[in-house]
Structure to design on (332 residues):
């Protein structure tokens, strides 16, 4: 059974805050939210579902639980009507830690929300202050516990490369998320034009990360989630999250394939360790099913690099029923 999201984009209506990295307020200024069009959006997406698909309507884009309460309930009521018809199984929404309380969680439960995605970004108060996030790490811990205690599935969202962040603080954020969450999203920083972060970079108050360093920092964080058994459901932005082309990026390293590059580095680390004592050539390596392209690396960079590093003429990959992000030599 495949899982599908039916996304409903809610512009940045629910957030009065203006984080230094966020371009959503500027985007929202040029958008009008058509509440009447939401049903058509859902109908069109539901029509593409196949028998057996497990689908949920996902309210993304802004801080859903911070929008006008009557509007939120109307949207939830509409979404719930598709649960009653059997078209979807549940609802999902994304929000901020400071827009979670018992009343809100009760409303979400009433209308069939099963998953809450929480924009934590960092659990370092210094980072949160530099980013003008508008809440403390304590608010994130409180919200995560409340969400889990209420029986929801929790997806923790965090960022890498934020102002004031270190590799250690990012790893700690991932560890903190693992204490509560059922899954994670990792958003490597993007320095968008016309954001305070772009002005900070221009003034020398923020040093943008080159792509290689951003990939490394992100891979380090994903390694934490892998070790703890927490699935990372996405690395990097999607097109509908404000990144539609390079013209919107002011500076710094970013690649739309950053998730692929991150996995490539994780597999390079594992394969390098595996091949350090290898005596065979060519070598056949078993990797998890569906992971051959990840193990081969972005544009096959791992195969090329490892062959050169260990003097191997050829590396071949075969799929095997082994855990994700593991590998083993099976022969030649």
């Amino acid at each position: 059974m495949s899982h599908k999201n039916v996304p409903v984009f809610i512009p940045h209506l629910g957030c009065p805050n203006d984080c230094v990295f966020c371009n959503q307020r500027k985007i929202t200024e040029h958008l009008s939210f058509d509440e009447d069009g939401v049903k058509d959006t859902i109908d069109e997406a539901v029509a593409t579902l196949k028998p057996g698909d497990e689908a949920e309507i996902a309210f993304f884009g802004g801080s859903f639980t911070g929008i006008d309460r009557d509007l939120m309930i109307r949207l939830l009521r509409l979404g719930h009507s598709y649960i009653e018809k059997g078209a979807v199984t549940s609802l999902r929404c994304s929000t901020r830690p400071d827009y979670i309380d018992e009343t809100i969680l009760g409303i979400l439960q009433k209308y069939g929300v099963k998953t809450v995605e929480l924009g934590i970004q960092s659990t370092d108060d210094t980072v949160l202050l530099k980013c003008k996030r508008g809440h403390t790490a304590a608010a994130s811990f409180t919200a995560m516990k409340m969400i889990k205690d209420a029986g929801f599935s929790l997806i923790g969202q965090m960022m890498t490369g934020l102002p004031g962040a270190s590799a250690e603080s990012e790893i700690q954020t991932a560890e903190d998320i693992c204490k509560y969450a059922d899954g994670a999203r990792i958003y490597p920083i993007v320095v968008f034009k016309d954001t305070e972060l772009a002005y900070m970079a221009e003034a020398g108050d923020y040093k943008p990360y080159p792509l290689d360093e951003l990939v490394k920092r992100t891979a380090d964080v994903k390694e934490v989630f892998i070790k703890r058994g927490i699935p990372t459901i996405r690395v990097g932005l999607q097109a509908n999250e404000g990144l539609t082309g390079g013209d919107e990026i002011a500076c710094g390293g970013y690649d739309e394939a950053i998730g692929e590059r991150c996995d490539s580095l994780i597999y390079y680390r594992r394969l390098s360790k595996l091949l350090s004592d290898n005596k065979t050539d060519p070598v056949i390596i078993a990797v998890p099913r569906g992971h051959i392209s990840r193990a081969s690396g972005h544009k096959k960079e791992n195969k090329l690099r490892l062959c050169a590093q260990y003097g191997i003429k050829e590396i071949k990959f075969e799929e095997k029923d082994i855990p994700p992000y593991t590998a083993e030599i099976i022969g030649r």
